[in-house]
Structure formats: structure tokens, C-alpha cells
Amino acid sequence: MTMHTTVGWHVELEFQEDDQHTRAAALVRLPDGSEVRAHGGASRHQTDANQPRVGEEIAGARALNELAMRLLTKAHDEIDAASGRTSHPIHV
């Protein structure tokens, strides 16, 4: 079986930070023009060193995890709508 790439997705991550918190916003634009958005956050304990990159990694990972779950839910809802029945849950 030969695989061909027919589409590509672009995921954007943006961060907002202060001394204690990092907030990430994730966005994917799908080929049909729809968008799926998600958010994630991280908090630095006052005794931890200030490492913005680590906060971005944690907040970004949490946003991407939520984005993945939203995409699974979207796909599940589309399967149900197309089939007219309730499909089996999609597991990660």
C-alpha cells in the first residue's frame, strides 16, 4: 500500500506569561475551514526557579492534550451524524 500526503494541518501555539503563570492557547485550522481551539496552563511554585521554557512546555503540552481530545470528540460526533447511530468511543 502506498501512502500519499493529501493535506497538512498547521497547529499554532501562543503563550502568555507572568512571573508565576504560563497560559497556552492552541489552534488547528482544518482543511474544511473549521478551527479547533484549546487552552492549557502551568503555575510555578514560589520555591522553583523561574524557567519560562519549562512553563511553556507544560502549558503547551496541556493545551495540545486538550486539543487532541476536542478533535477526537469532533470526529466521534461526525461519525455519529453520518451513520445515524451512536458509535463506539474513540480512545486515545
From TrEMBL:
Pfam families recorded = Rv2632c-like (PF08962)
Against InterPro entries, the record matches this protein to: Rv2632c-like, Rv2632c-like_sf
Q: Where is this region: Disordered?
A: 31-53
So which residues are the signal peptide here?
A: none
Record protein name field = DUF1876 domain-containing protein
Write down the species.
Streptomyces flavalbus
